[in-house]
Fold this sequence. Notes:
Helices cover about 75% and strands about 0% of the residues. It is an all-alpha fold and about 230 residues long. The protein has a single domain (about 5-220), classed as Up-down Bundle (Glycerol uptake facilitator protein). Helix 2 (about 60-70) runs antiparallel to helix 3 (about 75-100), helix 3 runs parallel beside helix 7 (about 185-195) and helix 5 (about 125-150) packs antiparallel against helix 6. The model has no long low-confidence stretch (mean pLDDT about 95). This is Aquaporin Z. It is a multi-pass membrane protein. It comes from Paracoccus marinaquae.
Amino acid sequence: MSSKAVAELIGTFILVFFGCGSAVLMGDLIGFHGIAIAFGLSIVAAAYGFGAISGAHLNPAVSLGFLVSGRMPAQDFLVYCIAQILGAVAAAAVIYMIASGKADYTIAANGLGQNGYGPGYNGEYSMMSALTFEFVATFLFVSVILGATQSDAPAGFAGLAIGLTLAGIHLVGINITGVSVNPARSIGPAVFAGAQALGQLWLFILAPLAGGLVAGALHGAGITRSPHAVSQG
């Protein structure tokens, strides 16, 4: 496995372990605001820890945005996506192992930080609300990432800008879908959470990928990119 793939695996592990772990293990104590901060801090940690190796995409939708914008070689895309999914599944497995040590924990009752919508899930928003939120939020998220990492962006601040953006997205959307904006983040917990999470997983794969694709296409066309920026691999 290449160093980039290892970095993506570990970085995505950090994202899911911090974010979903905060929801499962501390959610009752820290609430939605605390979970939002945990997701944001996870990106900051992974970006500064592994960004120099792989770019710290941590998310197939982000990798798709880089691919479509011309800033990622096609041969790296599949490798990144596989590593991201493996990292997310591994983190969900560790969270499940830890949570299972609590006497009153059951995955059916307490969940594993999986995404969802409809009756019985957080604010019980409709499928259309969930689809709209995930597409728009991912589009905005990937647009910020592409802008913050272009060649003429202020040096050293990308990880902070991206982490704060993810925290802000969570403050808006946790009650709607639990916030995916990342197919790998959704796949990890869904593998263990059961039929409902798996049955709704399509939305948390397709909507973020669509948002990332549109963001990448606009950036690649120069619409959301500084005219002085040079494409980066």
